[in-house]
Amino acid sequence: MLSEALLNAYIDANILLGAGYLLWSFARFLIVRLGLRRAYITHLKLLNGVMLAIVFCPIAIYFITAWVAQPTISFSDVVVAQYLEGNVDVTALQLDRILKIREAFERDLVDLGSPLSMGLAVLFMTGFIGFGFKVLRNALHLRRALNSCRPWRKIGRVQLLLSDRALVPYSTRGFGKHYIVMPTAMLDHSHDVRLAVAHELQHFRQRDVEWAIVLEIMTPFFFWNPLFFMWKREVIQLREFSCDQNLIARNGVDVRAYCECLLRASQRSLRGAQNFTIVAPAVPLVKTVPRSVGGLESRIMALTSDRSGWSSRRLFQMTFFPLALAIMAIGVLIQSPADWSHDRLMLSTIINLERLDIHNAETARANFGSR
Prior knowledge:
Elements: H1 2-33, H2 40-67, H3 75-84, H4 92-99, H5 101-111, H6 115-147, E1 150-155, E2 158-163, E3 170-173, E4 178-183, H7 190-205, H8 208-218, H9 226-251, H10 255-271, E5 283-284, H11 292-303, H12 313-333, H13 342-370
């Protein structure tokens, strides 16, 4: 049934998303322990790489199961094998009920067979519509902001626009079009303009705007998942650290001048934060909210740290491939079990024997009571 297949895929996606974030957090913990706390370029590459691994995991599993003759091993198959080895201290009937919890939940949710399933469906649809409306509203607001700008210059396929309302520079894109919006108040500092444009161009090189759009589109689908918002928060923070470090390393920008530019941009944003905010999907030079002061301090500290620990291609390769394999393994384990394996036939036999024992015990009690 199509609805059951879609629900099953959605639950798998949430499991993989949560597992991917936890795996990345553990990998980042190990990297920090190695003394590479400020290797933000590598941190962001790993986080984006994990997301790509999650996206391509179902495709890889499909081709693997199509090419490999032996059946896929699922988590329930592992549990059944451990039960037959005597490592799980439950009855066969209890184990069978535990293994069928997800299946029963999915069937109940699809059929709306209980008040709980109906309530969950209503809550999901309400949240989906609410967050979807918010994403659409932000997109329309951003479009109106772009339409109110004046064309200024063009750098390749990137259009530079001037805005009287914007407080800080930001970059965004449309279908085949890339935009950098510059506040007109910033034109008095030509050096800041060059640094801001270079910063936003670096965001385009890193595909940060595309990632911002993808995360915004995903929000209505995963609004209830706290790990998704933790993931989104990490991406927003790391992309600024990574962009700063890449810009300094790539273009040889003076660190002091760049930090002073960030400070001046932050001051402008704080003065008018109540009247203007950057809406997604856009990538600003600095955040236009008061709490960005702490983030700005962290960015300056990251820029003034030892550059030798900013990025490591070998570290990325050594870390990413184990993460991708772990995600693939989790994706395989959460698949539906094979039809009838040898272990499952044995479990079914034990279940039937337990049911027979229960039936015989009940019959014996009934016969004893009738005497």
